[in-house]
């Protein structure tokens, strides 16, 4: 059994992940390991490490401090048949990218090879990762590359996982379960009735909205359910193209450019309402994280949020993609 657990900072994902692996281990006792990936750089990280040690105290974990080279550590099959908790993927990615002993530009390949080997050896495996993809302030090139690699790895692990769980303020939300997962790549905009059959929404034909953090696989999902549909790039298309486009990707970039031009929310919403061709709108979630210091960034974050709120209210279907897995929220 492989479960991927994601969530924001301080969300309770660590406690949930520990409870899951301990539950399985209690039902069928076997060697129990904790793979620690946070390197103790200084006082702040040392405090975090100590906190996690206290959480694990008395639960039977043997701690393995593996900061890089996961596959190399596993070559002798030392974890065969065991239960393992790996925490946290965000640290492992940073280590492989930037530590001297890391894989550098081959970080994603090295990590995924290690995870596949680990999953093959383990009886049960829980992997904790981090939700760092939903802020409005533009990233540096280095941070963007880090998020791209972490996002890709999260999606790959989610695809191979039996379960994927997002923890929000201590509340576990199941994104994928082996026995109950519905194949959402067949038909967008469907509802489940009480018999378990699926029927198309009985609503007006309004735009389908797909949201999620950066690098979560939103556009890839969209191309599966709308094969051949041309996506207008909101990052660099002419602003007036919104009047006639059929589908727009990176809508969060489009709203930034719209606001920079001094155009209003009302003008944007009116233009979209008049566009009878619009079928699909894809946007990053950008309303999380610290409130930006820059005046424009604060205005932009609120502007985009209010635009999306009004569009979602009118939308026929709204889906949120986490680690490559879509979940209908409207």
UniProtKB/TrEMBL annotation:
Pathway membership of this protein? Cofactor biosynthesis; adenosylcobalamin biosynthesis; adenosylcobalamin from cob(II)yrinate a,c-diamide: step 5/7; Cofactor biosynthesis; adenosylcobalamin biosynthesis; adenosylcobalamin from cob(II)yrinate a,c-diamide: step 6/7
Q: Name one GO biological process term.
A: cobalamin biosynthetic process
Q: Which UniProt keywords apply?
A: ATP-binding, Cobalamin biosynthesis, GTP-binding, Kinase, Nucleotide-binding, Nucleotidyltransferase, Transferase
Reaction catalysed by this chain? adenosylcob(III)inamide phosphate + GTP + H(+) = adenosylcob(III)inamide-GDP + diphosphate; adenosylcob(III)inamide + GTP = adenosylcob(III)inamide phosphate + GDP + H(+); adenosylcob(III)inamide + ATP = adenosylcob(III)inamide phosphate + ADP + H(+)
One function term, GO molecular function aspect: cobinamide phosphate guanylyltransferase activity
What EC number(s) has UniProt assigned to this enzyme? Answer: 2.7.1.156, 2.7.7.62
What is the main EC category here? transferase
Q: Which InterPro entries match?
A: CobU/CobP, P-loop_NTPase
Q: Which protein family is it in?
A: Belongs to the CobU/CobP family.
Biological role stated in the UniProt entry: Catalyzes ATP-dependent phosphorylation of adenosylcobinamide and addition of GMP to adenosylcobinamide phosphate.
The protein in question is named Adenosylcobinamide kinase
Q: Which organism is it from?
A: [Ruminococcus] torques L2-14
Lineage, highest ranks first = Bacteria, Bacillati, Bacillota, Clostridia, Lachnospirales
